[in-house]
Amino acid sequence: MPSTTHRNRRRDTPPPRTASNETEVLRGFLNYLRTSIAAKVDGAPEPQVRTAAVPSGTNLLGLLSHLTFVERSMFLGDAARIHSQEPSPMHKYDVTVTTSASPETVWKLLVDAASWPLWSKVDSLDTTRSADLDPGGDDGVGAVRAFRTGRVVTGERLTEKVERRLLAYEDAFNSSMRNYHARIELKSTASSGTVIHWYGEYETSRLLRWVMPRYLQKFMQGMAEGLARYAEEGKPAQ
User: Fold this and answer.
1) What is the pLDDT of residues 54-98, one digit of tens each?
2) 3-state class of 140 per DSSP?
3) Order of strands across the sheet with 124-125?
4) What gap in Å lies between CA 38 and CA 76, rounded to an integer?
5) Where is composition skewed (Basic residues) in this entry (predicted)?
6) Using N-to-C axis directions, what is the helix angle for 212-233 and 103-111, rounded to 10°?
7) Is 71 helix (H, G, I), strand (E, B) or coil?
8) 71 phi/psi in degrees, rounded to 5
9) What are the residue boundaries of the structural domains of the chain, listed by start?
10) Number of neighbours of residue 63 by Cβ within 10 angstroms
11) How many CB atoms lie within 10 A of CB 168?
């Protein structure tokens, strides 16, 4: 009779049964999730435990640290203490596009906050939360431009302005980012067009840092492309 080889397989722990009250249900599922993740990482060797297994860069150790942080902050109220001990890393985005439009044309769109909804991904300019906007469409250093995207309003304060060459700004109020600084640099091409270099850096919460860098890189790429398209063709961003 041929021999049969049996492989030992670890079976997932089934979810708990419904308890008599909400507190017991919460405790039951919390213990269930703790046990499940502990079983999955138990025995994982170095360096595999630190090796990314998916394109996002997530590894087992990072996943375990994330879940530990969420439990401590949500249920034990340790968020402030944890954040004070762990410095928040700076994230960056960097996009460059080229348009046949002149630097002067691109510049006029950048310094006029009212034009941004025409070519960018923002929906509207919130004038009630903006400050020191120039009625002639040439906003200066210190102006706060508040843009609404969906239900979210973010404010950006202009910090540096070099005519037709550089516009820099920082966050005035932003629920998703902290210490945000961005620069938009314009350079003429040999054919009288413009190279638009838009880049920035920021901090975000521990939870959002998993998704914000990829999202913002794509969002800002769309912003720069919309600016280039509108400056060149006078057509709104797609």
Assistant:
1) 776 777 777 777 777 777 666 665 554 444 445 568 899 999 999
2) coil
3) 91-99, 194-204, 177-188, 166-173, 152-162, 144-149, 124-125
4) 20
5) 1-10
6) 120
7) helix
8) -65, -45
9) 22-80, 91-234
10) 15
11) 17
pLDDT in tens, 152-168: 899 999 999 999 999 99
Tokens of 2: 């041929």
Fold of 91-234: Alpha-D-Glucose-1,6-Bisphosphate; Chain A, domain 4 (3.30.530)
Question: Which tokens go with 202?
Answer: 């920021």
DSSP the chain: ----PPPP-PPPPPPPPP-SSHHHHHHHHHHHHHHHHHHHHTTPPTTGGGS--STT---HHHHHHHHHHHHHHHHS--HHHHHHHSPPPPEEEEEEEEESS-HHHHHHHHH-GGGHHHHSS--EE-TTT-BS--TTS---TT-EEEEEETTEEEEEEEEEEETTTEEEEEEEE-SSEEEEEEEEEEEE-TTS-EEEEEEEEEEE-TTGGGTHHHHHHHHHHHHHHHHHHHHHH-----
- The residue type found at 71 is E
- Residues 42, 120: Cα–Cα separation, whole Å: 48
Contact 143/135 with Cβ under 8 angstroms?
Answer: no
CA 97 to chain centre: 20
pTM score: 0.65
